[in-house]
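To the team - iron/sulfur cluster complex, inputs and output below.
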Amino acid sequence: MSEWKPTACILCSINCGIEVLTGGDDGRQLIKIRGDKAHPSSRGYLCQKASRLNHYQNGKDRITSPMRRQPDGSFEAIDWDTAISKIAEKLAAVRDRHGGEKIFYYGGGGQANHLPGAYAGSTLTALGSIYRSSALAQEKTGEFWVQGKMFGAPVHACFHDAEVAFFLGKNPWQSHGFPRTRNVINEIAKDPNRKMVVVDPVRTETADKADIHLQVKPGTDAWLMSALAATFVQQGWVDLDWVGRHVNDFEEVAKVLQSVPVDQNCRVAGVSPEQLRQTAELLRDASSVSFMEDLGIQMNRHSTLVSYLNRLMWVLTGSFGKAGAMNVFNPLAPLGVQTPNRPAFSPVNKAKVITGLVPCNVIPEEILTDHPDRYRAMIIESANPVHSLADTPAWQRALARLDLTVTIDVAMTETARHSDYVLPTATQYEKWECSFFNLEPEHNAFHLRQPVMEPPEGVLGEPEIHARLVEALGGVPTGLTDQLRETLRSQGPAGFGMAVQGVLKENPDLMAMLPVILYRTLGPALPDGAAPAAVLWAAAHQFAQRHPDSMNRAGFEGTGPVLGEQLFQAMLGNPSGVVFSVDDPESSWQRIRTRDRKINAAIPPLLEELAGLESTAAGTSEEYPFVLSAGERRSFTANTIYRDPQWRRKDYDGAMRINPSDADRLGLADGGRARITTRRGSALVAVEFNDRMQAGHVSLPNGQGLDVAMEDEQPRRVGAALNELTSLEDRDWLAGTPWHKWVPARIDKAEA
Ligand code: SF4
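Output:
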């Protein structure tokens, strides 16, 4: 009889704890799924998407052998020794001929699949690779840049005890973003003393529950948010005493906001001045406000400016460093791949590299050029850029131009099909895995997940793949791992820790190899095959050094290495997760990492952009009269790790939502077909009349348009591939984030 096993849902950043029963004919099916009440953050909560996870575990296009592309474009299966030695040889050849920095890395893990990125840093350092990117650069880098300038620390909302919740370009009912999302939204909606504000061009499910819905015209959030911020300055509602104690250079900001034409900006945004004033008064009078922005503004025009205006609202309403407001959180470890050298700009276009990430839209441009510094090879890991990033045809051309593309993934994805080598890896239910999306300011939890079944023969976990590549590249000195393994055996964890420190002191360059060194030394000594978790030993000790008080409040005792070892053991011993950091909201003021622990309000280039906002927003054209929001989150959409379209209970091929008045005018039928055309491409789509959309605005959902092998083994497409419609050049001037939520489009009735 199978037992319920704890793990997590991997479909969004919240990673709710789940319990699964495995079984079926082959014993490899997730036959029942329920919320895990022992998970410290989700406490049994789930949304409807998790129940379909077997469509991921037993998904389409699975590969179970390394594959090598043949001259005719087909693939042949090869053994692991050949794959590793050939790939290492070819990557080394690119490094030796053009320089290691010409080897680009993309990915590093999807939702809740963050250990690969931790190990990839060793491979990349062995190659001298320094440029990389991931899906975060599609969405969050503008936000990260602004946050770094203003706070120098990561900040998150505390909706569970906020008096007012403010959602900007975010529909948390569908996209989640904080633990137990729908429960919290319902609690706020039912409490007469609490309020909710939604800024969104679509009347979303969250907007239905909100007290105020500011239904902006698509792409005009900069006008709306500047009008909202300006109201506080122009009405004299700012607590100057609070600002004086906590904020630098506020006068520069106030001067620009003083000149914002509030009523004119309301007109541009399509929101009445009265409704804006009502919103401003609500925020002014609230004892606490938590704000959250998301892709509606982050993949839109003026996205970095709007992220800035959002944070200025935190300052103007005093919503930082107190309960129910915005507060600093302590992540267990930095997100993404860590390598010693972080360039400031990309090599060809000189695009800004934010948190180590090259803007995604820039990457194909920096391959499809004759510039001597162009990228020559790519390693792509747990990511599908050909499908998921703007301008699919440009990505296909770019990969064809490279000397070598290596993809590490579970399935033969659209990207894998354009690669030279494809290395198959375990699913998230077949390996030890975790998420570094630990974002809670007060009680921050970490969940190290154990496998619920063995991987099939022929696949390897990412830590093993990276260890083999590093060894083939000669990245770790001969004999070092044998020596450290012996120290661990003879002297235990304390002696091992000191020996590792000694090695790093003597040779600091080996720091980047530490993940692989730990995997090969501490890894085999861990219980139940937990070797992939070895890298967390370093993360636990580093966290204990940085935040001993936060750990003590979470129930860990002692200091120094004792504390670090306790945390590591707690991770291994709590299969449903563990709270590792507890902090008071007020301590955010001590954890902010600006020079004088004050918020830096002025960001000159963004104040310049704000001052230069036109009196009208650039609109659509006669040729492309609609705005397409590409990638809407819906009840049955998820990222593309669900390759099997059968997982969707409804909206099978992802209909285009259109206001009925527009549809009538165009002669479209509800449930019929239409052709959508953008400057970049064209697609046939199903039509759904939907009065949640405003006139002139249409949406298509995310996660569709994969070319999936069906029962007859032939790849078939279901739904529209959005990035055949999006362009590389449509991106934010500062962060380079794409405008997927503002794609000018034409809609035509499809011929029968
Ligand atoms: S909110 Fe839903 S999709 Fe997100 S992790 Fe939880 S169950 Fe999965």
